[in-house]
Design goal:
By secondary structure, this protein is α+β, with helices and mostly antiparallel strands. The chain has helices at residues 21-35, 40-47, 51-64, 78-84, 91-108, 149-157, 177-190, 231-250; strands at 38-39, 67-70, 73-76, 112-118, 121-128, 193-198, 202-211, 217-224. Helix 1 packs across helix 3 and helix 5 (91-108) runs antiparallel to helix 8 (231-250).
Length: 260
């Protein structure tokens, strides 16, 4: 469930053939959410957008209150934070996950989160920041790359996920069809996915499925693995936390009778 680098725009925002001004603005905001307070040059490098484009977009976002400027650096603004708090469709899951995530974070001292498919992408619902927070998504609304461990546990079960719907869809970038099939098979056999990749060094992340009473996978508990020597312990605690969350969800009233 690792965080991909800031989404590349593939061209100057607003230019012919580019992603457009709105898409460019979201690329900037996504990168800012990932890294926190940041300067213009670093923001341009992280997004892949031209520096002049980023400067122009920042000016517009500052005027709207979506971004704040402080001593030559930029950060997400109060307006955007207020809008983000209005995303309440999965508030019941956030409440149910509070205890299991605290348990997982305390036992592993790692950054942890719960993610679900939303809007065509695997998206973080809630999380707790600890070790490895700089590369592991944990803020509500952050999206995961299409080969994330969370995507794999959904795809391995045949459940619709962010980028693997239907399950026969082409593999994500960086995977051949055979590699992707092996990864899905391993996830089905083990009941989890462990993903190793490079991000300023070797990184590991783990995802374990959360089940509804029907057996359907409805979410994934994710955890960074800051110390591979403690992988067995981290895996055991992640499984336990996912079971705790599954039990909590299964005890909830039917969706139509819930207070979201």
């Amino acid at each position: 469930m690792e965080q991909g680098r800031g989404a590349r725009a593939g061209g100057e925002a607003g230019s012919p053939g580019g992603r457009g001004v709105l898409a460019g603005a979201f690329v900037v905001l996504e990168e800012m959410a990932r890294v926190g307070e940041v300067g213009l040059s670093a923001l341009a490098a992280g997004t892949g957008l031209p520096k002049t484009t980023v400067y122009r977009l920042l000016g517009q976002l500052v005027e709207l209150g979506a971004v704040e400027q402080h001593q030559g650096r930029y950060r997400v603004g109060a307006t955007l934070a207020r809008l983000g708090r209005s995303w309440t469709a999965h508030r019941f899951l956030t409440r149910s996950a509070a205890g299991p995530l605290r348990h997982l974070a305390l036992e592993t001292r790692a950054t942890v989160c719960v993610a679900i498919p939303s809007g065509g992408r695997m998206t973080v619902v809630t999380g707790i920041a600890a070790a490895a927070r700089e590369f592991f998504p944990h803020l509500p609304g952050q999206t995961l790359p299409p080969d994330s461990a969370a995507d794999v546990v959904f795809a391995a079960s045949g459940a619709p996920s962010s980028a693997r719907t239907p399950p026969a869809a082409p593999p994500p970038p960086g995977h051949t069809s055979n590699q992707w099939a092996r990864r899905l098979r391993t996830a089905r056999e083990q009941g989890l996915d462990l993903h190793q990749y490079e991000w300023g060094g070797e990184r590991l992340c783990l995802a374990v499925p959360v089940h509804a009473a029907s057996g359907e996978i409805v979410a994934a508990v994710g955890v960074a693995v800051p110390d591979p020597r403690r992988l067995a312990h981290t895996t055991e605690v992640a499984r336990r936390s996912a079971r705790m969350l599954s039990t909590s969800i299964q005890r909830l009233p039917p969706p139509g009778r819930r207070n979201t």
